[in-house]
Design a protein that fits this description.
Elements: H1 14-19, E1 27-30, E2 34-38, E3 48-52, H2 64-85, E4 89-93, E5 109-114, H3 132-142
Antiparallel strand pairs: 1-2, 2-3, 3-5, 4-5
This protein binds guanosine-5'-monophosphate and zinc ion (ZN).
């Protein structure tokens, strides 16, 4: 790390190594806080990952300031992905934790462009809510 660099980097983290140019990637956007690059295993054409340059494992670990830096850039990055690919829709997806299929332990926001007939599908079998009031109260009370 340079003296002026305050980013948290984890030498064992694949995305930190991408940030640090030790592992190549196809960069589509970069600034001091955020990097966006092509996913190596795209679910659809134009699948992009948006990451904070500093190392944080999951969304739950993100300082509000870093979350804000990511969120601020998502609209323009989404517009660019749609414009460049000709897609007409896009999923924003964040897998957090093993149970949620997170494979890389550096939080990343998937932008997955969608076009009619692209063949990609997220299974969406809606359930029903039991004890909505108890659940609402529990979540509400847990917010710090
Ligand atoms: P997760 O399941 O953790 O949300 O997804 C990790 C994503 O990172 C996957 O979509 C995978 O294709 C992508 N990925 C893993 N390793 C690399 C890599 O070295 N380079 C790039 N560009 N993408 C990667
Ligand atoms: Zn990292």
């Amino acid at each position: 790390l340079n003296a002026g660099q305050t980013q948290t980097l984890d030498a064992a983290c694949i995305f930190c190594n991408i940030v640090g140019n030790r592992i190549p990637c196809h960069r589509v956007y970069e600034d001091d806080a955020v990097l966006a690059f092509l996913d190596i295993g795209p679910l659809t054409r134009g699948h992009v990952l948006v990451i904070p340059k500093s190392h944080h494992a999951t969304l739950m670990d993100l300082p509000a300031e870093v979350a804000g830096q990511i969120a601020e850039r998502l609209p323009k990055l989404s517009r660019a992905v749609l414009k460049a690919t000709g897609a007409s829709g896009v999923h924003l997806l964040v897998n957090n934790g093993k149970a949620a299929q997170q494979a890389v332990g550096h939080v990343h926001f998937h932008l997955i462009p969608r076009s009619p007939g692209d063949g990609f599908k997220i299974p969406w079998e809606a359930g029903t809510v039991a004890d909505a009031e108890g659940l609402r109260a529990a979540i509400h009370a847990a917010i710090e």
